[in-house]
Automatic annotation (TrEMBL):
Residues 63-235 form the Lipid desaturase domain. Belongs to the fatty acid desaturase CarF family. Keywords: Membrane, Transmembrane, Transmembrane helix. GO terms for biological process: fatty acid metabolic process. This is Lipid desaturase domain-containing protein. Its main location: membrane. It comes from Eragrostis curvula (weeping love grass).
Length: 252
C-alpha cells in the first residue's frame, strides 16, 4: 500500500506548521478563550435564568450558523475561481488538491491546517468584541460572536477528524461524531464522490440535508450562470485535479 508521502505530489514540508502559523493559531486561541471567558462571566453575573438560557441558545445558534457558513464557503471555492483568484487563490488550489489527495489532510500539522481561519478571526474578533462592548449589547450577543469564531477556526480540524480512521480518533471525538455534533467520516464521504456537489458543510453537517434537499446550491449556480455565463465546476466531468489519486492506508 502506498504511503501518503509517495502519493502526494507536493512538498511534504507544506504539511508542517511554520512558526508564523503557530503564532497566529496561538494568538487567536488565546483571544477566543479570553473572549469566551468574559462572555461567560457576563452571562453568569446577571444571575438571571433568562440571561443564561439566552447565552446557551446563542451558543447553539453560532454553532449552527458556523456549519451553514462553512457550507457556502466550501461550495464557492470548490466551484468558482482558481489559483490566480485574488485573496482566495491559495485556498481554492488547496481544496482542489484535497479532492485529489483527501488523505493528506490527516497528515497536516494542527497549526498548518488552522492558520488561514486563525488569521482572519484574529483580525476580526477584537474589532467585533469592541463594537459589542461599545453598543452595550446583552451577553448572548458576545457568546454568539465568540462561539462562532471558535467554530470557524476549528472547522478544518472537524474536517480532519472526518477523514481520520476511527481507531485513531480520540474517544470523545468519536463519540461526538456518532452523536452528530461533529462531522462524521460516513457523512463527509458523500462529498468525495463525483460530481462532488453535496455535503459541503464541515462542522456537523446539520445543514447538508436542507441545502441538498432543496437544491439551494444548484439554484444559486443557475442564477450565477444566467447572470455571468460562468459554469460551476460541478456541472462538468471532474478533471484530473479533482479525481482522487490513489488510496492510502486510512482507506480515504
Amino acid at each position: 500500500m502506498s504511503s501518503p508521502s509517495a502519493l502526494y505530489n507536493g512538498n511534504m514540508d507544506d504539511l508542517r506548521s511554520t512558526w508564523s502559523q503557530r503564532a497566529w493559531t496561538l494568538a487567536v486561541s488565546a483571544g477566543i478563550l479570553a473572549s469566551l471567558t468574559t462572555s461567560a462571566f457576563l452571562a453568569a453575573s446577571s444571575g438571571s435564568f433568562t440571561s443564561l438560557a439566552g447565552a446557551a441558545c446563542a451558543a447553539f445558534a453560532a454553532y449552527s450558523f458556523a456549519d451553514l457558513a462553512t457550507g457556502f464557503y466550501h461550495w464557492a471555492i470548490d466551484n468558482y475561481g482558481d489559483a490566480a483568484t485574488p485573496l482566495l487563490g491559495a485556498q481554492i488550489k488547496a481544496f482542489q488538491g484535497h479532492h485529489r489527495h483527501p488523505y493528506t489532510i490527516v497528515r497536516r500539522e494542527l497549526c498548518n491546517n488552522l492558520h488561514v481561519a486563525a488569521r482572519a478571526v484574529a483580525v476580526v474578533l477584537p474589532a467585533a468584541d469592541a463594537a459589542l462592548y461599545a453598543a452595550r449589547v446583552p451577553a448572548a450577543a458576545h457568546v454568539f460572536v465568540d462561539v462562532l469564531a471558535a467554530c470557524l477556526v476549528l472547522s478544518q480540524q472537524f474536517h480532519v477528524w472526518a477523514h481520520e480512521k476511527p481507531r485513531r480518533l480520540p474517544r470523545p471525538v468519536a463519540a461526538l461524531q456518532a452523536a452528530g455534533v461533529f462531522l462524521s467520516r460516513e457523512h463527509h464521504a458523500e462529498h468525495h464522490r463525483p460530481p462532488y456537489d453535496t455535503n459541503y458543510c464541515i462542522i456537523s453537517g446539520m445543514w447538508n440535508g436542507v441545502l441538498d434537499g432543496f437544491k439551494v446550491f444548484r439554484g444559486l449556480e443557475k442564477v450565477i450562470y444566467l447572470c455571468t455565463g460562468i459554469r460551476p465546476r460541478s456541472w462538468d466531468t471532474p478533471d484530473a485535479k479533482w479525481r482522487e489519486h490513489g488510496i492510502d492506508d486510512a482507506g480515504n
